[in-house]
Design brief:
By secondary structure, this protein is mainly alpha-helical. The protein is built from 3 helices and no strands. It has one domain.
């Protein structure tokens, strides 16, 4: 998931930058692509958060805390 999110963040950054260039200014296809990529980032982040909560309950340990602190019980 982290690779997907990083790729999507790179893609939304590139398309956003491209929209500032004279060659692509007002390009509706690129604007739609930029919007779709940002929606995909939001969807992936929500899926990732839901999966972390689900696995926390399934394994009976706080995985969200482990992601924040970097420590997980052995």
């Amino acid at each position: 998931m982290i690779i997907v999110l990083m790729a999507l963040l790179a893609a939304v950054s590139v398309t956003g930058w491209m929209l500032t260039l004279d060659a692509f200014w007002g390009n509706e296809v690129l604007e739609e692509m930029h919007g779709a990529i940002s929606d995909a980032i939001l969807a992936c982040a929500l899926i990732h958060a839901a999966a972390a909560l689900f696995e926390s309950f399934r394994h009976k340990e706080n995985l969200v805390k482990a992601m924040i602190t970097g420590y997980k019980r052995a």
